[in-house]
């Protein structure tokens, strides 16, 4: 007799999920991606209902599924941030084409981000018009998975990679990258959590001596950490931006 295989979450997965959702609910992060947990919309709705019953702040958290990806976003903070991106027409972001069409292809800024812009407008409109705790977005007309993840995770750098390409090969291999990471550290326990991490091809940096400093400042501003309830929850914490430079033989996206 064949038994149905149950999808169980490990203790480690549960801790990661709880921490990420807590950061979103209290405003430390605007969003998070739940990966490798086989979470369905019904599971997400059950989790949010249980959390909201105990902690009212979770009423602002929405689970949004796109294809096989499940994102949790803070409805208010996320919409506010994305309205800024729309108002600027993405000129405040780096939308980078990393498709490898020939052997000498290098990363370059995407010339036409219309598809990504239309998708973001759909996301914002859906969040403002629908009050449901779980929302499934149509797969038709969505940009690449990397672009979707970049938008939802509020990265200032969005990679566009056509998954129909050869094995998802991209142009980031052997390219010097600047990696920015925002880290929250408890001064009481010394425990650190990575809140936001992204990379940018070094060749795309504006030729200004202070550009790395500007991107560091952008990363700090990207986290709504100055809200009173966040300060109350984490009164003894430090917020640090780490900048590193790496070159890898293969970059997975």
- Helical element count? 7
Count all strands and give the number. 10
Shape: globular
Spell out the helices and strands N to C. HEHEEHEEHEHEEEHHE
Distance between the termini: 40 Å
The neighbouring-strand order within the major sheet is 1-3-2-6
**Main beta-sheet annotation:** 4 strands, mixed
Mean pLDDT: 85
- How many domain modules? 1
Helix content: 25-40%
Radius of gyration: 19 Å
Pfam family, one: DUF4504
InterPro entries: DUF4504
Short note summarizing the structure:
The protein is of the alpha+beta class and 253 residues long. It is 33% helix and 24% strand. It has 7 helices and 10 strands.
Task: Note down, in words, how this protein is organized.
InterPro entries: DUF4504. By secondary structure, the protein is of the alpha+beta class. The protein has one domain. It has helices at residues 11-25, 41-54, 75-87, 114-129, 145-152, 211-221, 228-233; strands spanning 31-34, 61-66, 69-74, 94-97, 108-109, 134-137, 157-160, 177-186, 192-201, 237-246. It has a 4-stranded mixed β-sheet, with helices on both faces. The protein is globular and about 55 Å long. 30% of the residues are buried. The model is unreliable at 226-231 (pLDDT under 50).
Quick tags:
253 residues, alpha+beta, four-stranded mixed β-sheet, three-stranded mixed β-sheet, 7 helices, globular, DUF4504
């Amino acid at each position: 007799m064949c038994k149905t295989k149950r999808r169980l979450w490990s203790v480690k997965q549960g801790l990661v999920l709880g921490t990420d959702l807590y950061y979103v609910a209290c405003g430390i992060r605007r969003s998070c991606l739940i990966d490798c947990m086989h979470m369905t919309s019904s599971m997400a709705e059950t989790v949010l209902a249980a959390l909201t019953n105990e902690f009212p702040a979770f009423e602002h958290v929405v689970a949004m599924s796109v294809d096989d990806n499940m994102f949790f976003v803070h409805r208010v903070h996320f919409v506010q941030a994305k309205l800024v991106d729309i108002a600027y027409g993405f000129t405040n972001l780096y939308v980078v084409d990393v498709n490898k069409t020939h052997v000498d292809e290098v990363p370059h800024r995407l010339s036409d981000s219309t598809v990504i812009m239309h998708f973001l407008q759909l996301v914002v409109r859906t969040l403002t018009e629908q009050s449901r705790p779980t929302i499934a977005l149509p797969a038709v007309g969505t940009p690449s998975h990397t672009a979707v993840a970049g938008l939802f995770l509020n990265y200032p750098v969005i990679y566009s990679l056509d998954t129909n390409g050869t094995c998802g090969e991209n142009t980031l291999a052997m390219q010097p990258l600047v990696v920015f990471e925002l880290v929250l550290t408890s001064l009481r326990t010394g425990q650190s959590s990575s809140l936001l991490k992204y990379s940018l091809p070094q060749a795309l940096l504006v030729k200004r001596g202070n550009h790395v400093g500007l991107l560091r400042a952008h990363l700090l501003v990207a986290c709504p950490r100055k809200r009173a309830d966040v300060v109350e929850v984490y009164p003894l914490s430090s917020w640090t931006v780490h900048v590193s430079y790496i070159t890898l033989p293969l970059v997975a996206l």
